[in-house]
Specification:
38-stranded antiparallel barrel; mainly beta; about 950 residues
Length: about 950
């Protein structure tokens, strides 16, 4: 064979192997040898390779009267040890979904391809990748891209060195958004502040709460397909908490190219880091596929003014460039002396195609030196440290932030009395100096004295901060006390005196804790002098035991003020109290996860406001006990839009979902649909508004025989049960604390749903079974049309198991429906069926069925012409064969006769059958040839005088596992 053939085969093998990204093992760098010697296996024939190949390929072809629909998915991977020291990880995922095109709430697999090889001395990554550089204090970058990344590493000079680089391209944009929390709201914070749909790059976000970085998955979750932030656990933002989010979002037609490099050296006494990157718009690709000639001419002639376009096209973004360079050195001696120095350079261009528009340039320098870096001052009872930085105006300290958050806005406000207006004052030459002394003056007792000074180059604003503190800590308890003075000058002159204290027991069954913060501030603004007192505190206790824990805490915040603006007497401007309760328990027969928060807030400009937040999940009992159930309750505020089903249009007649214009609803499980179900997505047509939400679900099963030890009679064989599911939402400003339990409550809410179902199930040892399920459901949807549906139902099921091969059964459904959507509809349905099943020859079965359905109703107009009724008779015969894990096949032939009276009948009344006779044949076959290959097909044929023409649909699917 030709050389080109073998080369192509090799490239395919390298790039094709892949699998689901979520199933890939996490790489453990400790597996790589880092010693100076490398032991080579002398017997190559005995080399232990561990390559594992996983994945699957599916092809589904559906042929209908309206066309052909072809869907395919490919996931192939290879991962493991190629040799004793070389590791390979490759992925190819081709599912027909580009990154950024996700529309459903559940993040699904997208097209992806990469090849990665790792060894003790080199690594290479091709395809989809994420470039991460978090080694610097001034600069940090984490960006998803498509390209190549590689590097070399190894032992050098008694330490370990690594050099790496990246070249990639992407269509993403970085965003930063800061907002305040809402009392009672833990879920549904919009990442752009307006509730718009945004496609966030997965795992690109960073979230801070009051300047503290939160942990993804533990403290919060982000819905990347939509851009909504949900906090978790005990993270409960309040009205005076600051939330800051940075993230990357997919932005089509905004193409960037990334160039990056980083080098590091690690020695027990020396850390060296050098890194840099250049991020710029790809002008050549934008000219070819995005910009028109007029766009490019406008950009070249740009002088920095606002663009005014003569058409309705979206805004024209200037192509920009950002370049960063960083160098950092850290040294230590005997785990005592420690020094950290860093230099950073920034250069930007806001329009790289215009010679008349440039961008800022600047440098930044940072240092930190201490005589003892140990926490407990192990070497000497006194330690001195010096910290400082200088940031030039053109550096843009708020972009691409690194690990040193010295100039973050929340810290400037909370600790320095700066940045109360905005961040524009940071567009200047910035200076910060700080001196600290730590001491160990007794066993387990430590002291701190610290002074710092911030300013700009011209001293237009400045702030000095001094702190004295004492700390007592050991393995059982921790206690701290600090006294702070702050003097600042910016828009106004401020002088603050502050005291903080906190204490906590770290061990024991009962662990009390408490915190306090009291501030007195003098404010002088243009000769107007005021005084403000602010305080907040929290205290409580935790009880810890083997299977769970309980935490109770109460807290409060208050603010008083007086002076030229408010008068001579102290006046309340803020009063708030908070109660938080948490409980977790886990055992064989009972589990509980409980969170409850109550907050009451009063300000001088508004009346008292109460807010509740609750989250309860509990499971109790077990089947062998005769009692089992679960309870779930949620309460809170959210900006999250209502989620509705998302359906994808396919070739006409090839789907299983159709849209019924009479009832303005999608109907699933039909033969000749034009859509398929994709998942749940946001209903953006109704906008994003703050809503009060409540949910409650409960399910219970009770078997008297097992629970009470009854061994004979009716109570031995019967099971009683029931369930309630309810949810409610109100966007009018009214707060709700429980979902609706009757129709009148549901009508008063913006949207909601409730469903109640009962159960009586009798299973006699002789084989006789009876079941009765009464139910009612009510659904009010928030949409562009008013949608309200009511349904009452009674379902009866009876059966008799004659022996292992013979079963006879029947079912009766009585249903009453009222629907208000595009118009008013009412209908009643009675549906009864009888069936008999005979199993023979170890897998074959035959099942005849008879069914009668009748329905009648009206369109709500009140006129006789709007009335309708219909009857349906069905006879069916199903023949099949089933062998577990091998074959599942059946053929079903049915004759359906419908007689109807009325001009228009909703689709649901007669299950989609029209007036007249319909012959329907359905054949299904699914075969598992082995553990690695399966195939199946489904054929549907419908004809008769009730059908417009002969309808056929054939779906075939093959799936291969690797």
């Amino acid at each position: 064979m030709s050389r080109q053939f073998w080369l192509g085969l090799f490239l395919f093998a390298v790039c094709a192997f892949g699998m689901d990204v979520d199933s890939l093992p996490v790489w453990d760098p400790s597996l790589l040898a880092r010693s100076n010697s490398f032991v080579q296996n002398s017997d190559t024939a005995a080399r232990r390779d561990s390559i594992e190949t996983h994945g699957y390929k599916t092809v589904q072809v559906t042929v209908g009267d309206g066309g052909t629909q072809v869907d395919q998915e490919l996931r192939l991977s290879i991962t493991g040890k190629l040799t004793d020291s070389v590791y390979v990880d490759a992925l190819l995922s081709d599912v027909g979904r580009r990154a950024g095109d996700q529309t459903t709430a559940t993040l699904r697999e997208v097209d992806q391809i990469y090849f990665r090889v790792e060894s003790p001395h080199y690594f290479l990554h091709l395809g989809d990748l994420t470039w991460v550089d978090s080694s610097m204090g001034f600069t940090g970058v984490e960006r998803a891209s498509l390209g190549a990344m590689g590097g070399v590493r190894g032992d050098f000079g008694g330490g370990y060195a690594q050099v790496r680089g990246v070249v990639g391209t992407d269509e993403v944009q970085h965003y930063t958004y800061t907002f305040s929390g809402v009392s009672g709201q833990q879920l549904g914070y919009s990442l752009d502040g307006a509730g718009n749909f945004i496609a966030v790059v997965p795992q690109s976000e960073t979230v801070w709460l009051n300047g503290v970085r939160l942990t993804r998955g533990r403290d919060y979750l982000v819905n990347y397909a939509g851009g909504m932030l949900d906090f978790k656990g005990s993270v409960l933002p309040s009205f005076d908490d600051e939330i800051r989010v940075e993230y990357d979002a997919y932005e089509n037609d905004n193409i960037y190219t990334l160039y990056g490099a980083a080098a590091s050296y690690r020695h027990p006494n020396l850390y060296l880091d050098v890194s840099g990157f250049k991020l710029e718009n790809d002008v050549d690709r934008l000219k070819r596929g995005v910009w028109t000639d007029e766009d490019y001419a406008m950009l070249k002639a740009d002088r920095g003014d606002e663009f005014v376009r003569n058409d309705t096209l979206p805004p024209l973004n200037r192509p920009d460039r950002t370049e960063r360079m960083n160098a950092r050195v850290r040294v230590q001696h005997n785990q005592q002396f420690y020094a950290d120095f860093e230099l950073a350079l920034n250069r930007s261009d806001s329009n790289i195609v215009s010679s008349q528009v440039g961008g800022p340039e600047g440098r930044a320098f940072r240092w930190f030196v201490t005589t003892d870096s140990t926490r407990d001052l192990l070497h000497f009872p006194l330690a001195m440290s010096v910290y400082g930085n200088r940031v030039q105006k053109g550096f843009d300290i708020l972009q691409f932030r690194g690990t040193d958050l010295d100039w973050n806005l929340y810290g400037l406000r909370d600790r320095w009395d700066l940045a109360y207006a905005d961040s524009s004052f940071l567009d200047d030459d910035l200076l910060h100096d700080e001196l600290a002394m730590r001491s160990r003056f007794a066993r387990e007792w430590f002291g701190l004295a610290q002074w710092g000074y911030r300013r700009n180059a011209g001293e237009d604003w400045n702030s000095s901060r001094g702190e004295l503190g004492v700390q007592h800590r050991n393995r059982y308890a921790l206690g701290e006390l600090s006294l702070i003075r702050i003097s600042s000058l910016q828009e106004r002159e401020m002088e603050r005196y502050q005291g903080t204290a906190n204490a906590e027991y770290l061990q024991g069954m009962v662990r009390p804790f408490g915190t306090g913060d009291l501030r007195f501030t003098k404010i002088d603004q243009d000769g107007v002098e005021d005084e403000v007192v602010y305080g907040k505190s929290s205290s409580g206790f935790g009880i810890f035991f083997d299977r769970g824990e309980i935490r109770e805490s109460v807290g409060g915040r208050m603010a008083k003020r007086r002076g030229d603006t408010y008068g001579d007497e102290w006046a309340d401007s803020l009063w708030a109290s908070t109660w938080v309760q948490e409980a977790n328990y886990n055992s064989r027969y009972f589990t509980l996860s409980h969170l409850l928060q109550y907050e009451r807030v009063r300000t001088d400009s508004s009346e008292s406001k109460n807010s509740w937040l609750a989250n309860l999940d509990s499971r109790f009992g077990a089947e062998e006990l005769g009692v089992q159930g679960n309870v779930s309750y949620k309460l809170g505020m959210t900006e999250e839009q209502i989620y509705t089903a998302v359906y994808k249009a396919v070739a006409p007649g090839t789907g299983d979902v159709r849209y019924d214009s009479l009832t303005a609803s999608y109907i699933e499980g039909v033969d000749n649909g034009d859509f398929v179900y994709e998942g749940m997505g946001r209903n953006d047509s109704v906008g994003a508004v703050l809503s009060s939400d409540a949910e409650f679900d409960m399910e219970l099963r009770f078997n008297p025989g097992l629970a009470l030890g009854i061994r004979e009679g009716f109570l031995r064989d019967v099971t009683f049960g029931g369930s309630y599911e309810g949810e409610g939402s109100d966007t009018t400003g009214r707060k709700i604390y429980f979902p609706p339990v009757n129709r009148s409550q549901l009508h008063r809410m913006t949207s909601g749903r409730m469903a109640v179902e009962g159960l009586v199930d009798w299973q006699h040892p002789s084989g006789v079974s009876l079941a009765y399920k009464p139910g009612a459901s009510f659904d009010k949807k928030l949409s562009s049309i008013s949608y309200y549906e009511t349904s009452y139902s009674h379902q009866f099921d009876a059966g008799y198991r004659i022996n292992l091969d013979h079963f006879v059964g029947g079912a009766l459904l009585i249903q009453e429906n009222e629907l208000s959507a595009m118009q008013e509809w009412e209908w009643d349905i009675y549906d009864g069926s009888l069936r008999y099943r005979f199993d023979f020859l170890q897998g074959f079965f035959v099942q005849p069925l008879g069914r009668y359905r009748t329905g009648e109703g009206t369109d709500g107009s009140g006129y006789e012409v709007g009335e309708f009724d219909a009857n349906l008779w069905e006879g069916a015969l199903r023949v099949g064969y089933h062998k577990q894990k091998k074959v599942n096949s059946y053929a079903n032939f049915s004759v359906v006769q419908v007689d109807s009276h009325g001009d228009i009948i909703p689709y649901q009344v007669m299950a989609g059958y029209n007036d007249g006779r319909t012959y329907r044949f359905e054949f299904s076959l699914s075969v598992d040839i082995n553990d690695f290959f399966s195939m199946g097909c489904l054929y549907i044929l419908r004809f008769g005088d009730a059908e417009e023409n002969v309808f056929q649909k054939l779906s075939t699917e093959a799936r291969a596992y690797f």
